Please model this.
Amino acid sequence: MKKTIISLLLAAATAMPACAGGLLDNLVYNLRFGYSIGGTAPMGMPATIRSMDKYTLSPNFNLGLGVYRDITEHWGVSTGLFLENKGMKVDATVKNYHMAIVHGGQRLDGNFTGGVNMDVEQWMLTLPIQATYSFNRNLHLKLGPYLSYVRSHKFTGYAYDGYIRVGDPTGAKVEIGSDAGSRGTYDFSDDMRSWQFGMLLGVDWYFHKHWGAFADLSWGFTDIFHESFDTIDQNLYPIYGTIGISYRIK
Model:
């Protein structure tokens, strides 16, 4: 399925100029630089996550080249290639949250109650294929799928100030402290996917012949972890909003 999606998107990207009329000189290029805010989260807040206590902004920059082509007076197509980071740092309070940690040199798998710190970082190359609707030359709405190749990824953190029931909710209770020597750590970076697929909604507005602003909302449809990964019960999806500036080359 993954290979089919990749093949279809790459074929669409290659064929887009031809579908738009085959006139390459009518393409419009723009340089884009943005900043993203969001998180990697389950669809709906599970009962095991009691509260989100702290959210720290990450350097989620987005840089790339966009390409736009009119098809009719109002409709067109847009694509491009973007280097972006989707990261977050959060602290949460959980209860009976299934996870695996390393504590005192020993791996413990079970249900944890207490505080959890998460540090997620994903650097990726993203290819969107979007239909566009133009109200005029300077205002465009965009909607379509995107495909991302994750070049580097990290999912690390620690559990603290609580306890873990090993094996199941009635298993042996192990106390977890709050300082570096007594808390439990985890690193799930090697279990993360290299390919992601999702939907991108956005708007472009040019307030000058060349300069403009944009806002995008991306919603991932694929869990950031491999299908075989079951240490965390919930599937986690990247959901990010991006605002930025653009420079229309042509």
